[in-house]
Amino acid sequence: MAEPVLDIRRLSKSFGALKATDDVSLDLRAGEIHALIGPNGAGKTTLIQQISGALKPSSGSIRFLGEDVSALDVAERARRGLARTFQISSLTPEFSALRNVMLAVQARQGSSFRFFRDVMTDASLTEPAIAALSRVGLGDRVRTPAAELSHGERRQLEIAIALALRPKAFLLDEPMAGMGPEGSRALTVLLDGLRAEAPILLIEHDMDAVFALADRISVIVYGRIIASGTAAEIRADSAVRVAYLGEPG
Amino acid sequence: MSRETLLNAGLALLLLVLPLAATALGEPFYVSLATRMAILALAGVGLNLALGFGGLISFGHAAFFGIGGYAAGILAGHALNAEPLLSWPFEFSGSDQMHVVWLVAALASALAALLIGAISLRTSGVYFIMITLAFAQMFYYFAISWPAYGGEDGLSIAIRNGFPGLNTALPMDFFLICYVLLMLALVLSWRIRDSRFGAALQAARQNDVRVAALGIEPFRTRLAAFILSGMITGVAGALYADLNRFVSPSMISWQMSGELIVLIILGGAGRLFGPVVGAMLFVLLEFLLGGLTERWQLFLGVILLGVVLFARGGVIGLLVGRARHG
Amino acid sequence: MQTALLIEQLLNGLQFGVMLFLMAAGLTLIFGVMGLINLAHGSLYMIGAFACAGVAAATGSFWLGLLASLAAAAAAGAIVEMTIIRRLYGRDHLDQVLATFALILIFSEGTAWLFGSFPLYLDIPPLLQGAVELPGGVRYPIYRLAIIGVGIAAAFGLYLLIARTRLGMRIRAGESDREMIGALGVDIRSLYTVVFALGAALAGLAGAMVGALQSVQVGMGEPVLILAFVIIVIGGIGSIKGAFVGAILVGVTDTMGRILLPALLTAMIGPAKAAGIGAAIASMLIYIVMALILAFRPQGLFAARG
C-alpha cells in the first residue's frame, strides 16, 4: 500500500498535568475522508493545531507527503499543501470575500513579494478566487466585506479559502458548525466530491454528515483515540457507545 | 472617481499652489513652510507603510529620519573638506549632490531598519512599541555621545546639497524637489497598497494567524515593509537636514517619533494621503498656534486627545468616511 | 583601577537601578492589571519632582516636599485615570500611545507654564547630607544610600502588598482574569484608579528623590520612562519581579559601562580615541543588552503574560 498522505505517529501534548493529546497515531490516505469525532474538550482542535504547526507537540512525529514536517512552522506546512480551516472563522475582516480568497490564491502561487500591479485587475488572482467562491455558493457575495457576512457565509468563505489553496490535504475543523440544515447539506455534497482532489481530515459534530461522508472514523476521548474504523464498525463499537454516545454498553 | 481620490487630487494641488502663490506675492517664508509640509509628509508616507498598512506601531521612526539627516550632514561635511569617508572597498569622500545623499540615506536607513526590525518584529503589541522606542533612543544617545560629528551640538551644512540642473539654494527649486519626491513616494505607496505584497501586509495586520495558515510568513512581509518604510523616512530626513542646513540629535528624539505618528493619525492612518493632510495640518498648527504662544504644544496635546477619543479616522475619515477594500 | 572607585560606581548603579525600579514597577503594574501602555508615566515622575521642589522651597522642609510629591503624583494619577485613561482600557495600543503622548504634551507644557522654563533646584535635607565611610574605606554620600534604602523598602513593601493584602489579592486576580474579578464583586473601577494612583505615587517618589541629585525640569521624565520600558521589556511585561531584576541590571550595566568601557578601550587603542568611542558605545550598552536578551527570550526574563 502507498504511504499515507498524512501520517501521525505517537503524538502527545501536555499542558501541565493535563494530557490534551495522549499517544495519538492516525493517518490520512489518498482519496479518503477520515473523520475525527469526540465530545467537546476531547482534544480535537488541539490535535489540528499540532498537525498544522500552531502548537508544538510534546512528543511524536508528523509526516506529510513522505517527509517529517514536525519541525516546520505553520506557513511552511501550508506551503507544502496542508490547508486548514478554523473552528471559529478566521478571516481578514476588512477585506471583501473576494480579497480573502485572492490572498489564498496568491499564497498558493508563492507570489506575495510583488509590489506594483493592482491585484484587482489581475485575472490570475480574481478568476480562481471567484471560481472558489462560486463553488461554495458565495458567488453573489463576492464584494461583501468578510465582517458583514453572516455566520454561515463566513463558514462557507473558510471553505472557499481552503479550496483556493488547492492543497494536498485538508484539515477541516467543524466546517458545518452553525451552518443550518440547508448549508450543511450543500457542504456535504461539496466535500463528497472534494475527496477525489485531496483527502480530508474532518472534525465534525454533525453526525449525519460524518456517517454519510467518512470512509473511516476515529473517536477521540480525553486525548486518546479509543476506536477507529468504518462507519459501521464505529456504530457497533461498545466502547464508543459508553464513552461517547453515552449509551450503556 | 471616488470622493477620496478627488480629495487627494485637491490636496496635491493645494500643496503645489501654496508656494507658487507665496512666491508670486513675494512671501518666500511660506515656500519654506510648504517645503516643511512636503518633507514631513514624505516622512509620514514612510511611516504609514508600516503603521497604517501593516499595523506596526513604530515609536522609533525618528531613528531613520535622523539617520537620513546625518547622512546629508556627514556627506556634505566630508565633501566640503575633501576628507575621505571611506578608503575601502572604494574611495569615497562624501558628496554634495542630493541624489547621492538620498541613496546613502536610504541604504543606511534600510540597514538600521533591518537590524531594528529583525529583533522587534519577533514581538508584537506593546513590546513592539517599547522596543522601537528604545532602539531609537539608542541612536539618539549615540549621536549625542559620538564626538566626531558634532555630538550634542549637531552638525551644520555650510551649503545646501545640490541637484543637477537646479539651484537648490532657491526656495522654490528646493520645494519642487521635495514635492516631486513626495509625489513619487505617494505613487509607490499607492501601488504597494493595491499590490500582492500590500494585500499580504494589510491582511497580516488584520489577522496574522490566518495569513500564516495560508503559507505567507507575516514576519518576512512585515520586515520588508518596515525596511521600505524606514528608507522613505530616511530620505525625508536627508531633505529635512538640507532644508534647515543643520542636523542634530533632536531629529532622533522620541518627540520626533511621536510627532510622525501624530501627523499620520491627524490625517488618517492607512489612508494614502493621511500623512499629507496630517503634515499640512501639523505645520499649519505649529505656525498659527506657535505665533500666538510659545506653549503651542499644549494645544496640540488637547487636539490630539480629542482626535483619539472622538475622531478615530482622522481628517480623511471625517471627510470621506471609512476606507473600503475592493 | 581602584577598588574604591568600582565599589562607588557599583553603588551608584544600584541607586540608579532602584530609582528605575520605582518607575518600572508602576508601569508594569498598570500594564499587568489594566492592559494599558502609559507614556505619560514620565510626567508623573516630573510632577513628583516639581511638587517636592516647590513645596520644599515654600516651606523650607524637604520632608514636606517629599510628602507633597507622593500626594501630587497620586492625585494627578487618580484624576487622569478617572477623566481620560479610563476611556482607553478597551482601546487598541495605538490609541493608548497617542492619548498618553498627548498627555505628555499637556503636562509638560502646563508645567512649563506654571513654573517657567528654568530648572528648579532641590537641596538634600540636612539629615542626609555628607558621606559615610563604608567597609573598605569607601566614602559614599548618605543621600544616595538612603535612596537605595527607600527603593529596596518600596520593592519589599510592594511585594508584601501584592502577596499579603486584600488589595494585592484583587490586583493578582485582575492580572490573571479581568472578567473574573468583576464576577467576584470587586469594584473594578475603583481598583483601577487605586492601582493607577499607586503607580503614579511610586513615579512621583522617584522623581522627588532624584530631584535632589539633578535639576528639576520639564522633560526630565521621558528619558527615565524610556529606560523603564527597556527594563520592562527585559524583565517581562506585567512582572514586578522582572521589573526589579531588569532595573538593577540596567542601572548597574549603564553606570559600570560608562567607566569600564572607556578604561578598557584606553588600554586597547590609546586614550585619544578611547574617550569618544568608549562613551558612544557605553551609551548604547543597555540597548544592546536588551537586544541580546530579546534574541533569546522574546517575552523577557520573567514573562507574566503575552
Automatic annotation (TrEMBL), chain A:
Keyword terms, alphabetized: ATP-binding, Nucleotide-binding, Transport
Molecular function, one GO term: ATP binding
Record-linked InterPro entries: AAA+_ATPase (IPR003593), ABC_AA/LPS_Transport (IPR051120), ABC_transporter-like_ATP-bd (IPR003439), BCA_ABC_TP_C (IPR032823), P-loop_NTPase (IPR027417)
Protein name: ABC transporter ATP-binding protein
Keyword Nucleotidyltransferase applies: no
Domain ABC transporter: 6-247
Recorded superkingdom: Bacteria
Pfam families, per database record: ABC_tran, BCA_ABC_TP_C
Keyword Nucleotide-binding tagged: yes
PROSITE patterns, per database record: ABC_TRANSPORTER_2
Cellular component annotations (GO), alphabetically ordered: plasma membrane
Biological source species: Pseudaminobacter soli (ex Zhang et al. 2022)
UniProtKB/TrEMBL annotation, chain B:
Cellular component per GO, a single term: plasma membrane
Subcellular location per the Swiss-Prot or TrEMBL entry: Cell membrane
Pfam family, one: BPD_transp_2
CDD domains: TM_PBP1_LivM_like
Entry keyword set: Cell membrane, Membrane, Transmembrane, Transmembrane helix
Signal peptide feature range: none
Membrane-crossing segments per the record: 36-56, 63-80, 100-119, 126-149, 169-188, 261-285, 297-320
Membrane topology type: Multi-pass membrane protein
Protein's UniProt keywords contain Metal-binding: no
Example GO molecular function: branched-chain amino acid transmembrane transporter activity
Protein name as it appears in the record: Branched-chain amino acid ABC transporter permease
UniProtKB/TrEMBL annotation, chain C:
InterPro entries per the UniProt record, alphabetical: ABC_transp_permease, BCAA_transport_permease
Residues spanning the membrane: 16-37, 44-64, 70-89, 101-122, 142-162, 190-213, 225-253, 274-296
Location in the cell: Cell membrane
Keyword annotations from UniProtKB, A to Z: Amino-acid transport, Cell membrane, Membrane, Transmembrane, Transmembrane helix, Transport
Gene Ontology cellular-component terms listed: plasma membrane
Topological type in the membrane: Multi-pass membrane protein
Keyword presence, Cell membrane: yes
GO function terms (MF aspect): transmembrane transporter activity
Biological-process GO terms, alphabetical: amino acid transport
Main location: membrane
Family the UniProt entry places it in: Belongs to the binding-protein-dependent transport system permease family. LivHM subfamily.
Protein name: Branched-chain amino acid ABC transporter permease
Classification lineage: Bacteria, Pseudomonadati, Pseudomonadota, Alphaproteobacteria, Hyphomicrobiales
